[in-house]
Amino acid sequence: MTYAAGLFAFFVLAVAAWRDVATRTIPDAASWLIGGIGIGARGALGFEALAVSLAGATLLFLTLFLFFARGFLGGGDVKLASAIAVGLAPAAIWEFVVATTFAGGVLAILHLLLRRWGPARFPGRVGAVEAWRIRRGAPLPYGVAIAVGGTFVLLGHP
């Protein structure tokens, strides 16, 4: 993936993460854009590279779908993670999963700390709503962790 495509993907992921914080939904357009960038990037390397990436993304989708079915992840999280995987080689898919897991751990610790000590005054309407969600034990906006993991891997593999 070119650096320019990775940078564009970063902005799309930033918007998806913000929307996940604000509304606990991830826009389908973000997954379509990221998937399209990935198909273009891997397709430029040849049919075999694209086929291997699609197989890896399908395997990731099926695995994450099990988490969705158990209520551990949202459908938007599954789609976004799978779309990121379309643009990655198999080894990079594993790096993405590991980076996302670490980012999710940091996000979970932050939420636990904010629940324990009370959220500070968050700026703006979205901040106030997020503070309200934290006080009531709402689920994590895991799209943020997916965006961080995706950015880490996409910009690290030009």
Automatic annotation (TrEMBL):
E.C. numbers: 3.4.23.43
Residue ranges of the TM segments: 54-73, 93-114, 140-157
Cell location: Cell membrane
InterPro entries reported in the protein's UniProt record: Preflagellin_Peptidase (IPR052218), Prepilin_IV_endopep_pep (IPR000045)
Main location: membrane
Keywords: Cell membrane, Hydrolase, Membrane, Transmembrane, Transmembrane helix
GO terms for MF: aspartic-type endopeptidase activity
Occurrences of domain Prepilin type IV endopeptidase peptidase (ranges): 8-109
Coiled coil regions, renumbered to chain: none
Highest rank taxon of the organism: Bacteria
Entry keyword Transmembrane: yes
Membrane topology: Multi-pass membrane protein
Protein name in UniProt: Prepilin peptidase
Lineage summary: Bacteria, Pseudomonadati, Pseudomonadota, Alphaproteobacteria, Acetobacterales
